[in-house]
Specification:
By secondary structure, the chain is of the alpha/beta class. The protein folds into 2 domains: about 1-30; about 40-230, NagB/RpiA/CoA transferase-like (Rossmann fold), CATH 3.40.50.10420. It is about 35% helix and about 20% strand. It has helices at about 5-25, 45-55, 65-80, 90, 95-100, 115-125, 175-185, and strands spanning about 55-60, 80-85, 105, 130, 135-140, 145, 160-170, 170-175, 200, 205-210, 215, 225-230. The strands form 3 sheets. The chain has a 6-stranded parallel sheet with strand order 1-12-7-4-2-3, sandwiched between helices. A 4-stranded mixed sheet has the order 8-5-6-9, sandwiched between helices. It has a two-stranded antiparallel ribbon with strand order 10-11. Strand 5 and strand 6 form a beta hairpin. The model has no long low-confidence stretch (mean pLDDT about 90).
Length: about 230
Amino acid sequence: MSRDRILSNLRTSLASSRTWLEGEADRASRSIPPHVHPPVENLADQFSAELRSLSGTVYRVADDAGAVAQIGAILAEKGAFQVIAWNLGQIGLAGLPQLLAQRGISITSANIHGDERKARLQALDPATVCISGVDAGIAESGSLLLRHGPGRPRLASLLAPYHIAVLRSGQIVRGLGDALAQIRARHGSDIFTDTSNLTLITGPSRTADIEMTLSLGIHGPQEIHVVLVEH
């Protein structure tokens, strides 16, 4: 069957069922379900368990000093000498700038806009680690919510094979609805005024082929390391 014939059949089918489809759409709720699982006593425990079940790694540390030490250990393990990162002030982790400086680890600019976009992307290739902050952690799914904007490049959580995310226990909420409500409370009802998107990250990048063979890291980081500061 030709392409034009297939498209014609699809248009005819959609036209015949449009009224029913529009009615179903009008009746559907547009509110986000607030929760999926029953409540738990400790959201940090739930978040950690959910992320670990998805092949993510969680390091629970007591304070900023412990977080910096853990990040240093990960950077050493990965042999990192160059990273892609949020603006360090946006991450807000005391001691992180000093750690990177002491180890001679440079931060590569994630600005790839302009006429030399291809060359800028190639310059990012040697960076094996990306470091970002987090706007919310979702306990029910082990997900991270990141709001991008100035000083918070998307590539700092997407491009390098190893992603380190700094999360504070006070940022963990129960469900997706809570996370979006938290973002709106902080940035206003129109959360896309200053940014083009939010990113939801639920474990390392996972891709399956037609035979359902699962691979990690095909379309994003193959490892995600969440440093959870508990104070």
